[in-house]
Specification:
Keywords: Membrane, Transmembrane, Transmembrane helix. The chain is mostly helical. The chain has two helices and no strands.
């Protein structure tokens, strides 16, 4: 669940970031994809750490 939330949050963040920079639709898609991957990786690491520390 944390990973899915991270990917979605990253995609939204990427679109907002590209929009602020005056990007077109292709720029927004690229920023959304890159941010979604980065946030997803961070969320996956957080999930593993939480699982190791709690479980």
């Amino acid at each position: 669940m944390i990973v899915i939330a991270g990917v979605l949050l990253g995609a939204v963040f990427g679109v907002i970031l590209a929009r602020k920079g005056g990007g077109k639709a292709a720029d927004m898609a690229q920023y959304a994809a890159a941010s979604a991957m980065a946030f997803g990786i961070v969320a996956m690491i957080a999930t593993v750490l939480i699982d190791r520390l709690v479980g």
